[in-house]
Specification:
It is built from 12 helices and 22 strands. By secondary structure, it is α/β, with parallel strands linked by helices. Bound molecules: pyridoxal-5'-phosphate. Pyridoxal-5'-phosphate (PLP) binds next to helix 10. Homodimer.
């Protein structure tokens, strides 16, 4: 019997054993050790497909947000599927190029691009800089003219979507560091259009992450289209609309709209308001990779207690930071189901911090030596990993059908301090 888990049809029990596509996760952990990130190539492509279906027949670009999962094999998968990329550093640009991505399909986001990063991106020929302040615009103009190049830009506008209605939106509100205030957008576009080395090509917004409702997107789109009309009335032409990323996934019982439904609604509004001729862009990260990955970890010790039962595993907050950082809920299951009754456990790692937990009060039937899978770990997992407690970062594996590729080797301890130097004797 096959039982699928929430979030991914590619992750399912066959009898007692959990498989990702046609690969047994128990077998993978035995072969490659733990902690181990495992990604499904088919799940990533299946997550991209509704974006592509919804945008078919219209000038568009899906720019995968590299920061969600930046392994070059993941980037290669999306590059081969026709994606562009949303980057936030020249390091991410280097990864895109190493993965065979097309720089002409790259958009460069972020509030703090350095001059060196601007120059690298200009020389690579990126499609667009998503500029977040007037100060950045002026520096970009200087860097571009110095190189005798032109920076194509959009301004990231802050649509200030009503917090009362949508309190979970964290980046599209007045009072956070992202974007250019709605009231200043027209004058900033006029300034941009007057600067040498700058060519205005679009408008951009990104209102937050893990959004599970269509309403904030539709509200933000209305605000953006109002601005486009005002900007064009002021004499500056806008070619593309970049509506950002942020679509949520199912970690437990969330029911986000499918990308196809969301984009269908957005395109209907774009058409209804007479903007159907524009290129439309999206920057999805989490929704393309989140449910395509798991983190495998071995149970080391069980510590039943008077108030709490602790299940100590070999993955920690340095491997997967989301629970410690945001108190995020991520599902945890045994990759080989046991028949004994489940007990409530706090699943914790070896790092010396009380915040080092992966899940609290989880009903699990488990014993030392078992392999657990932390679910929906394909986004903001490995990319946020650190070496805290001098722990080497996990290995990463990609599966496709029954094929298995190691896409990142486990970090050796000797790698961790090879750039450090002892004091020279005086
Ligand atoms: C992080 C980010 C994204 C991707 O967000 P997701 O929630 O992962 O889809 C897209 N655009 C920008 C500017 C971002 O900062």
């Amino acid at each position: 019997m096959t039982t699928a888990l929430p979030g991914s049809p590619f992750l399912a029990y066959r009898g007692p054993d959990l498989y990702l596509e046609d690969v047994s996760l128990q077998a993978l952990a035995r072969t490659h050790g733990s902690p181990l990130y495992v990604y499904s190539r088919q799940a990533m492509l299946a997550a991209l497909a509704p974006y592509q279906r919804a945008l078919k027949g219209r000038q568009h670009l899906v720019c995968y947000a590299v920061k969600a999962n930046s392994n070059i094999a993941v980037l290669q998968t999306f590059a081969q599927a026709g994606c562009g990329f949303d980057i936030v550093s020249s390091g991410e640009l280097a990864r895109v190029l190493a993965a065979g991505g097309d720089p002409a399909k790259v958009v460069f986001s972020g509030v703090g691009k350095t001059r060196a990063e601007m120059a690298e991106a200009l020389q690579a020929g990126v499609k667009c800089f998503n500029v977040e302040s007037t100060a950045e615009l002026e520096v970009l103009s200087e860097v571009a003219t110095g190189l005798k190049l032109t920076a194509r830009i959009s301004l990231r506008v802050n649509p200030d979507v009503d917090a009362g209605t949508h309190p979970y939106i964290s980046t599209g509100l007045k009072g956070n560091k992202f974007g250019i205030a709605h009231e200043l957008a027209v004058q900033t576009y006029l300034r941009a259009a007057s600067l040498p080395g700058i060519e205005v090509v679009g408008i951009d917004c990104h209102i937050g992450s893990q959004i599970t409702d269509t309403a904030p997107y539709l509200d933000a789109l209305d605000r953006v289209l109002d601005l486009v009309e005002a900007i064009e009335a002021a004499g500056v032409r806008i070619h593309h609309l970049d509506l950002g990323g942020g679509l949520g996934i199912t970690y437990t019982d969330e029911t986000p709209p499918s990308a196809e439904v969301l984009i269908g609604l957005l395109l209907a509004k774009i058409d209804a308001r007479g903007h159907g001729h524009r290129e439309v862009m999206f920057e999805p990260g989490r929704s393309l990779v989140g449910n395509a990955g798991v983190l495998l970890t071995e149970v080391m010790f069980l510590k039943p207690g008077e108030h709490k039962n602790f299940c100590v595993v070999d993955a920690a907050m340095n491997d997967l930071m989301r629970p410690a950082l945001y108190e995020a809920y991520m599902g945890i299951v045994n990759v080989q189901q046991r028949t004994e009754p489940a007990v409530l456990w706090d699943v914790v790692g070896p790092v010396c911090e009380s915040g080092d937990w992966l899940g609290r009060d989880r009903a699990l039937s488990t014993q030392p030596g078992d392999v657990l899978a932390v679910l929906s770990a394909g986004a903001y997992g490995m990319t946020m990993a650190s070496n805290y407690n001098t722990r080497g970062r996990a290995a990463e594996v990609m599966v496709d059908g029954s094929q298995v590729w190691v896409i990142r080797e486990r970090e050796a301890v000797s790698d961790l301090f090879k750039q450090e130097r002892l004091l020279q004797a005086t």
